[in-house]
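name: query_chain
kind: protein
chains: 1
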Amino acid sequence: MARSNLSGLTSRRPFTLLGILLALLVIAAFVLVAINASTGQGSTTQAVVVASKDLSPRIPIDGGALELRSIAVSGYPTGSFFSKVDQVKGMVPLVTISAGQPITGNLIAKPGTTLGSQSAFLPIPSGYVAVTLPTSEQQGVGGYIQPDDYISVIATVQINGKVATKTIFHDLHVIRVGPLEAESVPAGTTPASSLTVVVTECQAEFITWFLTYGTLKYALESYHDYAPGDQAKDPNCPSVISARGVTLKDVQAAYPTLF
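structure:
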């Protein structure tokens, strides 16, 4: 009887060993899969938009300040931009962004929007200033003037009972239409009440004189005649301290056909 039991145990031993071996193989397979998954995750990278130089708040980001950099998937922050710098170009930093730092959606805003208590710097070339002109539907070409348009300014004055009209400025660059809070309103919803244009400080003084003693209307120039690009400093009025004030004699000398 004992010999029979011993024989049964002996016959079952290969199956027991085989089961143990299979279990060990299964465990080893799971370990290898886990290791490969961990290694694969750590080595996977993604092209992320980063700053190629330090970026300051309120200054729109140009394409030269951005680059794509491959960063491990586990290393880039939430809200990053991938594959194209155009997604970030022209946006405005809310805070200082350091060179090499991934740019995320919570660090930038669209230009023209309120940035907390501030707004983006207006695109005013060196040597120039921005002034705001009052406008209306009849005065401002039915509301068709939009940012980045160029306008001519027509002045009408009445002196000694005589009325005269003359175009006093050409090619004034419009950089904003209406107040900042109204920029989110779709164009054409309501006529804008103001136009913000780029001029020299000397031109700003003449405009102020005409607004005080005459009336102004605006002509929208054809987009075929626009000449976008950086404006060089006016040699006759290179800075804001170049203006010396405007009197009636100055206006008469500058625009003799008006008088």
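note: Residues 53 and 99 are 4 Å apart (CA to CA).
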